[in-house]
Specification:
The complex is a heterodimer.
Chain A (H helix, E strand, L loop, with lengths): L1 H23 L16 H12 L14 H15 L3 H12 L3
Chain B lengths: L1 H86 L1 H4 L2 E16 L5 E14 L3 E11 L5 E15 L2 E9 L5 H5 L23 E13 L3 E10 L3 E5 L2 E6 L12 E11 L2 E12 L1 E4 L2 E2 L6 E14 L2 E12 L11 E14 L4 E11 L7 E13 L2 E11 L10 E9 L1
Parallel strand pairs in B: 8-12
Antiparallel strand pairs in B: 1-2, 1-20, 2-3, 3-4, 4-5, 5-6, 6-7, 7-10, 8-9, 10-11, 11-14, 12-13, 14-15, 15-16, 16-17, 17-18, 18-19, 19-20
The chains are: A mainly alpha, B alpha+beta.
Chain lengths: 99, 422
């Protein structure tokens, strides 16, 4: 009985979080749909790159990967490091502009 | 007299001839001149015509050349556009792939055992569709002492980027409990050749899970941020041996023989970017599903809890971090292994880069406590690393270990490791 309660509670919590997130999201998850026009994005990306990456590992050289490879690598790091979507786009712009 | 007369006649004739022939000759010359002038005019006209034809021919060739050049230009422009499109097509593709991972080669020399080399590598696969879906997986290949190659699926998840601060993850994922297992364990990241005792397999820290996870991050204030991860999964299974729980196997199992899920998560706070403080927890019910090497069923479930705390801080060339985590199972009198148990471990680690950040000294202390004395271990590890590249490291380390006498956990060790993340 207790376990069924846990399951129902968790399912309801997940449903609420998902519904809230999807419905209230103002910004599309797909960055390609909203072209960047922020002149500070590059600088923000450099700052986030310097602050976030070194929390766990040595800084990777932007020249290590091509632009398309950074696209995937940053998506992976967004999951791993808890980056927000905006932070991921900022860092990606910085890396693609610095390699 | 006659002769004179003849001469006179001749002269007269000549005179008359001149008189008669003169105008006739003049008339002939004029005619010829007219004829010549006519011919000259004709020739001039022909010459003009020829020149005109020549100019026309030249113009015609120029037009053809011009048209030819235009055609070539158009073809070249189209070829250039195709080349440009081809060169930039990666920017417009909906899907991209990336092969990553890491590998290491080790040398371990224990105080009371044989020195040996070892090797493993972990390829990672990433396949992304737009900025919406990412499939990622990691395999682990390791050569065992008997020569067999051990292959394991570290994780395989489909990540759905719901929005800027929410990612839904399904599949087998690294346990989000604590920080070391999910972020610090790859050999090119870990600053020492080994994981802290208790953070490996069958230790105090859950390794992986199969289920669903929701995670993300959110900024607040100027530089503040928090991250979160919550999950539901099949949970670990208990391994019984000689009437007691030998280990909590929390490595992600597809089956759920105890018919109970486990729920857990982690939240972390970053008041400023260089400081992170995280708290983890999980709860659920688990059961003994393997006893003395054989699968069993029907053993009663019992409570299972995880608690963890972790923190990291970077200051200049210093990197400081620490983590505590424990797994505990309740006692269950009706079980084949009635006693409960608690596995807990913690470590603190300091590292400092020097020599233009090419060298790094590391010091780590760990205390792992298991219900079984032969597994418990206290360790002080020293390391010196040389960074060949940002993701390649040569590590020299010494571990001073304190465990049960006669066990491997009590052996001090020298270790050398070459690690590369790609």
């Amino acid at each position: 009985m207790k376990n069924r309660f846990y399951q129902l509670f968790a399912a309801a919590l997940v449903a609420i979080l998902l519904g809230t997130g999807v419905v209230l999201t103002q910004r599309p998850a797909d960055a390609a749909e909203t072209p960047a026009a922020d002149p500070m994005q590059f600088a923000r990306g450099a700052q986030t790159w310097a602050n976030t990456c070194a929390r766990c590992h040595n800084m990777r050289d932007p020249k290590e990967l091509r632009d398309d490879q950074w696209r995937v690598a940053i998506a992976h790091m967004r999951v791993r490091a808890g980056l927000t979507g905006q932070e991921a786009r900022d860092v990606l712009l910085f890396l693609q502009g610095s390699n | 007299m006659k002769m004179f007369t003849n001469r006179k006649t001749i002269a007269t004739s000549l005179a008359m001839l001149f008189i008669v022939a003169g105008p006739a000759q003049a008339q002939t010359d004029a005619s010829r001149i007219d004829e010549l002038e006519a011919k000259a005019a004709t020739m001039a006209a022909e010459l003009a015509e020829l020149r005109a034809n020549l100019e026309q021919a030249k113009e015609s060739e120029s037009v053809q050349e011009l048209q030819s050049l235009r055609a070539e230009t158009v073809a070249a422009r189209q070829a250039a556009q195709r080349a440009e499109t081809s060169a930039n097509e990666w920017k417009n593709t909906t899907s991209v792939t990336h092969l990553a991972g890491y590998a290491s080669a080790d040398y371990v020399s224990p105080e009371n055992g044989n020195a040996a080399f070892g090797v493993n590598f972990n390829p990672m696969f990433h396949f992304q569709y737009n900025d919406k879906i990412l499939w990622e997986a990691e395999l682990e290949f390791e050569v065992e002492e008997n020569g067999d190659t051990n292959i394991g699926l570290e994780y395989s998840t489909i990540d759905w980027f719901l929005n800027d601060s929410m990612i839904l993850i399904a599949g087998k994922f690294l346990s989000p409990l604590g920080n070391f297992r999910q972020n610090m364990h790859p050999s090119w990241i870990n600053k020492l050749p080994t994981a802290p005792p208790g953070f490996g397999h069958d230790g105090a820290a859950p390794v992986s899970e199969i289920g669903m996870q929701l995670r993300g991050g959110r900024n607040f204030g100027g530089q503040g941020k928090f991250t979160y991860a919550g999950y539901v999964g099949n949970g670990p299974k208990l391994e019984g041996e000689d009437g007691e729980i030998h280990a909590i196997e929390a490595e992600g199992f597809a089956g759920n023989p105890d018919d109970e899920f486990v729920y857990g998560g982690r939240v972390s706070l970053l008041p400023f970017p260089k400081l992170e403080v995280g708290v983890s927890g999980a709860f659920g019910d688990v059961a003994v599903v393997e006893n003395d090497g054989a699968d069993i069923s029907g053993d009663p479930t019992r409570g299972y809890t995880v608690f963890g705390f972790d923190s990291s801080y970077q200051l200049g060339n210093f990197d400081l971090r620490g983590e505590y985590i424990s797994q505990e199972v309740d006692a269950e009198p009706a079980s084949i292994a009635p006693e409960g148990g608690k596995w807990e471990t913690w470590y603190v680690q300091g590292a400092y880069k020097f020599g233009q950040a090419k060298w790094e000294g590391v010091l780590r202390y760990t205390d792992f406590k298991s219900p079984h004395a032969d597994d418990s271990q206290e360790q002080l590890a020293f390391g010196l690393n040389y960074l060949l590249a940002p993701s390649a490291m040569l590590k020299f380390a010494y571990e001073s270990n304190s465990g049960l006498a006669g066990e491997a956990t009590n052996d001090d060790r020298w270790l050398v490791q070459l690690a590369y993340g790609y």
